[in-house]
Design goal:
Blueprint: H1 2-10, H2 16-28, H3 32-35, H4 43-65, H5 72-88, H6 95-110, H7 116-121, H8 126-129, H9 137-153, H10 160-190
Bound molecules: protoporphyrin IX containing FE.
The site of protoporphyrin IX containing FE (HEM) has 20 residues, from α5, α6, α8, α9 and α10.
């Protein structure tokens, strides 16, 4: 990763976002075609909103039940969210519902379904929305571990092809977010047009 940030700093023959993408592909061990297979798939129609909702519920149940350290960070964030809920009387009754809603809406939109996420919250801007969290390779593996477990539990509901496509896309995205966070300062210093 050190060598990569050096490369990012000194590069002048590849756009920085392309470099982030190629590093994310390398770390996630995926080809471009596999990482973005959801874009050429009929997954939105074949899987549908109901099963995406169930998948995300399973995932966040595991995340919130995690007995260990790394999601403490998340819990502090959630406490803040709860306070905001009390202040602004959000339509959600609890933070886990908000986490479910955010990721469900995002995934449905990202696979080509209804753009619920942008209608409610605007541009996804995932790099910025993860800026306050520890986006390390360990966090990514933990996150992906829970997601792959949840996908496996849905083998009767979601066809293997679509489970694979979802898993690949999320693996790539998790590593893209990790790489992007590490490189953020460098990218900011490069400014527009670099
Ligand atoms: C290193 C792996 C990751 C970590 C540690 C992480 C952590 C978090 C945390 C702590 C939150 C805020 C709490 C919440 O709303 O649940 C969050 C929100 C979110 N995450 Fe991640 N995440 C990771 C990967 C991903 C991936 C792979 C995706 C999409 C494929 C994703 C999509 C989202 C979305 C859509 C939100 C809601 C953002 C908002 O509207 O505020 N995350 N993530």
């Amino acid at each position: 990763m050190e060598a990569f940030t050096e490369q990012l700093r000194s590069t002048n023959d590849m756009h920085p976002i392309k470099l982030l993408q190629s590093k994310a592909l390398e770390l996630s061990n995926l080809s471009y075609d596999r990482a973005f297979a959801i874009d050429d798939s009929d997954i939105a129609i074949k899987v549908g909103e109901y099963y995406i909702t169930l998948l995300v519920e399973k995932f966040y149940r595991k995340v919130y039940d995690d007995p260990e350290d790394w999601f403490r960070l998340l819990q502090i964030y959630l406490l803040m969210t709860l306070l905001l809920h009390l202040l602004y009387r959000s339509i959600f009754t609890s933070p886990i519902e908000e986490s479910n809603q955010n990721l469900t809406d995002f995934l449905i939109q990202r696979i080509g379904g209804t753009p619920y996420y942008s209608e409610r919250k605007g541009f996804p801007a995932l790099i910025d929305r993860h800026a306050m969290f520890d986006m390390s390779e360990n966090s990514a593996e933990k996150w992906l571990g829970y997601m792959d477990e949840s996908l496996k539990e849905m083998e009767d509901d979601i066809h293997e092809k679509y489970r694979r496509e979802l898993s690949d896309f999320m693996r790539y995205t998790a590593y893209f977010l990790v790489v992007a966070q590490k490189s953020k300062t460098i990218l900011e210093n490069m400014g527009p047009g670099s």
